């Protein structure tokens, strides 16, 4: 599954959030950034981006994002005196957006030097990259890279005479993979890897199992805050948003089948039930299945309801969940989309056959038409609906970015021996700290334990309050 | 309130549904349609629209709409044999969209002749108007009419040598007003008015009270199906959609105040509560107030929560609900929008003062900036969010259009004396019939009374099943 | 349906609220109250109740009820000065409970004289009746009357030398029926009837239609507050309570069919959906059917789901909704109950056949056992679950009692000619007043219209705020 | 917290489920069971219970429970051939109810010998104990034991000439404690401990930390199925049930504060929100706090809302959460109850002062009256509302009992060395198996992975499907 030839493909399938599209759709000149000579206002040219002139517009985007990322701003304030990342040389590979920029500028404020590439060939906000380059960051990324560009940019981040990274911040594992492949010696100086994505974490566990992981790695993806907020709460909103923006469908009374009842599926089901849809669930795991039952959803096999449903949503993390046979049996007008993972869940390739006609009716919306006139409404060509057709709230990104920053600080400052060559979850206490930094947004007032209560519970008054496995 | 000088202004404030915007944003030539000479393919030129060449594109839009308006299509089939509108000459003034086109073509199929103008200067889908003109309808409408154009179009519908309407289908009352003002004698031949909007219905009741209503009128606005579906169910979805499309705001944990707990307010509150917002309600009517309490919302005065809320939504039908004093007290980043009625609820005019800066950040989204840097996010300049920033599901429009068609049939065929010069609600049985035509969409199976049960309940087996006042 | 021989039977089928059962189950002596001589402490003996010695206990119950009926207490205060019922001689026939006692003592405080009988042979709280008798009220009622007792009590209320009622407060129509039958001349002095129940209102409309109604009558049953609060909100809670107390069933994951989607059905469905049940709905009325669809319930015929459901709930107001054929097809352990009306909805008589075994497993719970061992769990023998097996919140009773008091005041004080010999709904403004008296319970703060807003809306600042047909 | 002098006290505070009360309230003779000579029909007298004559009634209760515990019945069938517990000598200490009886008889069917005592002095269903004794089980338990009886019964289970247990099934840790204290040598033959309760598990971890745990122990309490089903889903229903049965309170519009947002708090909040209450939450853990925010609850300190709420519910597992100072500030009529743990959360002792009057108004309901007349409604004297005032659904007990049985089988059959002297969670795969055994109840159909999908996910087709920490 994770052999070299697939490297990069997972990320490549993720396309650009809708709302940012407008800013970067502008048809600039067609010259490749690799062929341009650009300098920022201070004469620095150690970057490669679309157009440095968009820096002002990008700066405004960053400022707007700052307003909704209070935790990072607080981190800047609290930790600035002591510069916990002084001496850190961070090489990063993530989506390059206004929110990432706030993270990068926070890392810099904490003392780090940063070099950055994009983890996805489509998702870079060009004007944000421009603002970062103008601000002195070595950024190598633009919207619409080729695969060759993609690896070239990563290489430019890492391969610099006289500079060697000592921390990695990765989203998808491609940067880590590149260093393993091309510059394995670099790991001697690297103190740790912070990885954000399911795919990247999976790769790290494979390396660890194979005894090939040579530095500690922090699995940010499985931190409670990320799981619950990014998946459950975020998808609860984005499923509605993604479906509305693409199809204007009315939810009331619609029959929907949701494949998979993990956090994402739970979020989707809760939202659609609340809007008056009738929701069916499919599951392979009996525990999640029982939860679906208790939450009021009929647990079925897909074949039982495929002829009657109006909407099919995949959230399994699996492949070939909706195969051609099911697509053949769907009724006219059925909407099919993927909220799960990558672009594997719906067997879209099986629809590329001569007897079926494809009609692009809107951006991200295709009608696939059967010989008898039946139409299936396929969204985002089976890629992730929430990334392709809705936006991710800055608040959720703030939680993830703060977690990444704390993970970097922890790994960079950990005393020798605290972390071995293994994959770690963020210490519970840090998870709790991330959460606490986001409470003021809701004007939420935490209760403090009395000494007597702390003693009774056997807890430190400042946490951690739950065992690590608590969700 | 409803004096002549305001005529037209209510409708004018309603802007175009978002999703259709794309089709009509194309920058055609700038010549006024009134100055063009156009003919359809059969040589007919009794229409005035933007561009007859867009007819094919419009036809496709109409065909798509037909698929989601099964009730009108069923009506065409069922009633076609007998042509219940044979001899009817309908003059209409409504939004001109694909859904209206399905209605007009249904009326034609039932035997009616139709002449049509737009009830709103912005809302016409030009390509749909073209398809109608190509199909032989006398349509006078385009997107972006001036006020003078607006009345000119209406006049062209009505004032035709050798043709006189005998039925009026109005949305807002402007067409009715024009005939009263210019051609009062026409009412001698007119069998009735069907009016769709709150405003138009209000005008009719005023006329009736003043003894000036000279034909029967059917109040379609207050039919149960319209009230419950258009307001409650539709707004339950469009409040989320409108807020997301304009601001990408995350709903979870947000504090929201909803002004007014009628059907619209009930829909908004239910949706936001389901998405994890904390919702406060203001009300003037103690009964609705008590409902809000029982539904789990704190009933407050606006002043009690104005400093703490993240979102303010008006749904009152009233004016000056959110005045400058409240806007001054809102916190930074507060979103303000109107789901209620017209553009009166938020005192937007009070924000047009020199010390405040307006910044247009997206289509339909303004930041209003106070001297201290505080920003208020004002949506659609206080006009209706659901019309401006989200789409109305075709299914809901189908219910209304079917009701309009049935009201025309009823008034046109009613025996002498059934209806006097007064305003009527659609007979309950017809309301029920409209509903029944929409059940197959949900694969819903109605139960039939046995003879014994019908007798026990004192009901006819075919309805009506409830008293007229039942909601 | 409403012929004389059925008179009384509807009410008789309503049994006692559970929570009050304890107070009156005490096995007093077996002497019929009609054979006892009792006096209160002031020597008065114009009453007939179980046991005057229970008065103190009853007084405490009344005092507890007073705390939760703030509207009536407010009415006592506000209207006491002017005694709007001075001179009123009210004869009443209702359930005799602590809440009724608060109503009666309020009427007295407003100036009325009261004589009272029970509308149900089982529902009288003996100690409350004792407290009322001790307080000087002429009460004729006890728990466990025979049908002969029932009419005897009513007659004793009405038929008193030298006293003639001028107002009737009825619940079920039996008192009204008795006066029509025995003392038609009394109507000459009677200013009006206030009727509370569906059945009683139905009878009044029949009389009116037949031209036999000889005084104005107020239909309290159809007031908005009654409909929404008594039916929707109250049943939302009592369906859960009634099922739990009788069967301890877990709701999560259960499949339930609710027959009828009026206010009661809406309340039941909302509650069960919220608790994780999968709910199906049956309906005869297409409008309610469409509402069920939009609210997220599959609309089915009972036969489609009868084999698979765990719980069957009737809320139709109809008869023979669940017939033997359906009972035969239910699965083992299926729970069957009635939330609708009377005891007609489930054909319980059809289960009284020799091949079926009945087993009483708890109070109000029977197992009906088929020859193959299948058991159906029948609750309250098909009578109303919410009356038999749960309690009605005092708050809801407070709304109804306040409405009754205001209706009496309105009819008693109405100027000649305002009300004809017809059935009236309570004026909207009074409905609103009742609601407003209940808002302080929720610390709810009503917004007041400004003069400008009232003018804009064409409303009086004090209401009424909605047309009479608004729900 | 867990010193010897408190042993037993936790359990002692748990009182009897309401619905079973009726069966055991019967005022048998007053002779202590310890002074009686009883034999079952086969002449066996190795038991000590209230009254062997109640065996038939108890057998019927057990048979009813069997119908709702399909997983244990399936286990009997599937595992009976191989007798996986052949040779097992299980000593148990749990609540003795019909559901426990089904578990015990399942263990026996799987080959085990069982001796049993009660873990609580009040909770034994005497007639069930009788049926077990009649069936040949050595049961030592009755409702209303003294503390001396409690330990005597445990001792009788353990201390038998010629018989020595090799497995322990404990609920609360008292049995384990007794063996540690009195018969430490027994541990040489004991293969493992299965512990069910929070308290008992806490004790085991203390022992383990102190290096004193001398056999493997299985922590059943923290298995996913137990946590989610027993806490979240069960409390979602029992909070409503417990409040209604004790107070008949109407939930709609009530202001409620829930202290603690763990699984129990989440269940309580979801239920009350669904019923129309306005819910506030207090928390000490920032992660749970953020979840409360996203779920739509205002996060407050108790002091902020204590004056305004109608209901206070504790679910923290902590002590002195509601102290006298808060009780002093509550408003008249405020209901106070505990859903959390033991009887520590509300400082009930602080209410036992001379100036306050206690009035018992119903079973489990006290009015505590302040000098100024203010009344607080205290439920179950601060003990667990769900155990005291509502019933636990058999379905939930079935999940726990099945988990206990599987844990015994696992420990008894584990190869040497799989488990060390430590506390273990049940292997994920067994958790999943327990869940799968309960799906048929909901007619739920699990999806199976294809070979290709299993390979893609790197999973065995039969599970486990999730990492151990997944919740």
Automatic annotation (TrEMBL), chains A, B, C, D:
Task: Name the cofactor(s).
Answer: NAD(+)
GO CC terms: cytosol
Q: Where does NAD(+) bind?
A: 262-267, 283, 386
The UniProt note on the cofactor reads as follows:
Binds 1 NAD(+) per subunit.
Record-annotated S-adenosyl-L-homocysteine hydrolase NAD binding domain positions: 231-392
Region (Disordered) residue spans = 20-45
Task: Return any one Pfam family short name.
Answer: AdoHcyase_NAD
Q: Which UniProt keywords apply?
A: NAD, One-carbon metabolism
Give binding positions for substrate: 97, 171, 196, 226, 230
- Name a single GO biological process: S-adenosylmethionine cycle
In terms of superkingdom, the source organism counts as Eukaryota
Similarity remark: Belongs to the adenosylhomocysteinase family.
Spell out the protein name for this chain: S-adenosyl-L-homocysteine hydrolase NAD binding domain-containing protein
Q: What is the lineage of its organism?
A: Eukaryota, Metazoa, Chordata, Craniata, Vertebrata
| Gene that produces this protein | ahcyl2b
């Amino acid at each position: 599954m994770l052999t070299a030839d697939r490297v990069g493909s997972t990320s490549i399938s993720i396309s650009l959030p809708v709302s940012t599209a407008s800013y970067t759709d502008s048809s600039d000149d067609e010259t490749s950034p690799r062929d341009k000579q650009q300098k920022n206002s201070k004469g620095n040219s150690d970057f490669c981006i679309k157009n440095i002139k968009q820096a002002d517009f990008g700066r405004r985007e960053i400022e707007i994002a700052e307003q909704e990322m209070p935790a990072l701003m607080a981190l800047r304030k609290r930790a600035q005196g002591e510069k916990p990342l002084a001496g850190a040389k961070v090489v990063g590979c993530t989506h390059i957006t206004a929110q990432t920029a706030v993270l990068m500028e926070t890392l810099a404020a904490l003392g780090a030097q940063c070099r950055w590439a994009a983890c996805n060939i489509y998702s870079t906000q060009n004007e944000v990259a421009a603002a970062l380059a103008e601000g002195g960051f070595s950024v190598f990324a633009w919207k619409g890279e080729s695969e060759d560009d993609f690896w070239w940019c990563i290489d430019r981040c890492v391969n610099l005479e006289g500079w060697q990274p000592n921390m990695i911040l990765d989203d998808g594992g491609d940067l880590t993979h590149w260093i393993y492949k091309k510059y394995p010696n670099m790991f001697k100086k690297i103190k740790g890897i912070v990885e954000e994505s399911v795919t990247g974490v999976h790769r790290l566990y494979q390396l660890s199992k194979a005894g090939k992981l040579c530095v500690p790695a922090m699995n940010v993806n499985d931190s409670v805050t990320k799981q619950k907020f990014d998946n459950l709460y975020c998808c609860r909103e984005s499923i509605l948003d993604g479906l509305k923006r693409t199809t204007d469908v009315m939810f009331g009374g619609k029959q929907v089948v949701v494949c998979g009842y993990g956090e994402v599926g739970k979020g989707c089901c809760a939202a659609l039930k609340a809007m008056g849809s009738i929701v069916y669930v499919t599951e392979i795991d009996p525990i999640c299945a029982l939860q679906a039952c208790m939450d009021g959803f009929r647990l079925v096999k897909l074949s039982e309801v495929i002829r009657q449903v109006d909407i099919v949503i995949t959230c399994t993390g699996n492949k070939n969940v909706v195969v051609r046979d099911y697509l053949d049996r769907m009724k006219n007008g059925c909407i099919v989309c993927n909220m799960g993972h990558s672009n594997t869940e719906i067997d879209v390739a099986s629809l590329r056959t001569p007897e079926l006609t494809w009609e692009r009716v809107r951006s991200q919306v295709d009608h696939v038409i059967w010989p008898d006139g039946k139409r299936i409404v396929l969204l985002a060509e089976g890629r992730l609906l929430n990334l392709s057709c809705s936006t991710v709230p800055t608040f959720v990104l703030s939680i993830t970015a703060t977690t990444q920053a704390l993970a970097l600080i922890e790994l960079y400052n950990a005393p020798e021996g605290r972390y071995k060559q293994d994959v770690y979850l963020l210490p519970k206490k840090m998870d709790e700290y991330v959460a606490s930094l986001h409470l003021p947004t809701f004007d939420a007032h935490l209760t403090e334990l009395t000494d007597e209560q702390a003693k009774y519970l056997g807890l430190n008054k400042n946490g951690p309050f739950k065992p690590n496995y608590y969700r």
